[in-house]
Amino acid sequence: MAKQDIVMEGELERYLGNTIRELRRAHGLTIADISERADISRGMLSRIENGQTATSLDALSRIARALGVSLSALFKDYETEGGGAQLIKAGDSMEVARRGTRSGHTYHLLSYHQGPTKLFEPFLITIEQESATFPVFEHPGTEFIYMLEGRIAYRHGKTVYDLLPGDALTFDGNVPHGPEKLTTVPIRFLSITIYPEATPD
């Protein structure tokens, strides 16, 4: 095998590892979660994420299913030319499962494949029906919410904020937060979290 081919293989392994890690974190899943779902050992999955080993298409396919994406999604931006910009066209955002999903919340991730360190996460969140249960979130970093549609009472710590379209709320993600009351549905808002450093596995 030519030296150039070896270099290219190494680049692909690193790309796939970074992509799998970012998708896993976007879904709020641990290495143990994906290991169990994909029937791959934790050690092997860790080596794949760190670009330390090549893996078969069968294993990649099982990892993709465990992440809830197609196999082709793992290769989507490989060898994409450009200056590092990422365009997500309308309708192409990735729907992910998070704690609020069971409460009728829909999460669309508007940017992904961000490399080995997750710097931020922008979500478009839609709530189309009232719910008796609300998820409570805690995470590192600063979160910014911008209301697009509907009306929601949003709790941060001991304070509840009444949010209408055009309102913006910025807060510390380490303090427990989440919906308190769905005043007018459907509700749509942007939620952008800025992380101070890489999030733990």
Strand content: 25-35%
CATH topology of the largest domain: Jelly Rolls
Compute the number of helices. Answer: 4
Tell me the overall shape.
elongated
Give the helix level as a range of percent: 25-40%
By oligomeric state, this entry counts as single chain
- Integer tally of domains: 2
Computed over alpha carbons, the radius of gyration is: 19 Å
3D architecture notes:
This protein is an alpha+beta fold and about 200 residues long. The chain has two domains: about 5-75, 434 Repressor (Amino-terminal Domain); about 95-195, Jelly Rolls (Sandwich), CATH 2.60.120. Helix content is about 25%, strand content about 30%. The protein has four helices and seven strands, in the order H-H-H-H-E-E-E-E-E-E-E. It has helices spanning about 5-25, 30-40, 40-50, 55-65, and strands at about 95, 105-110, 120-125, 140-155, 160-165, 170, 175-195. Strands 1, 2, 3, 4, 5, 6 and 7 form a seven-stranded antiparallel β-sheet that branches. A hairpin with an 8-residue loop joins strand 1 and strand 2 (about 105-110). Helix 2 crosses helix 4. The protein is elongated and about 50 Å long. Residues about 1-10 have low confidence and may be disordered.
Give a short summary of the structure:
The chain has helices spanning 3-26, 31-38, 42-49, 57-67, and strands at 94-96, 105-109, 120-127, 142-156, 159-163, 168-172, 177-194. With 201 residues, it is of the alpha+beta class.
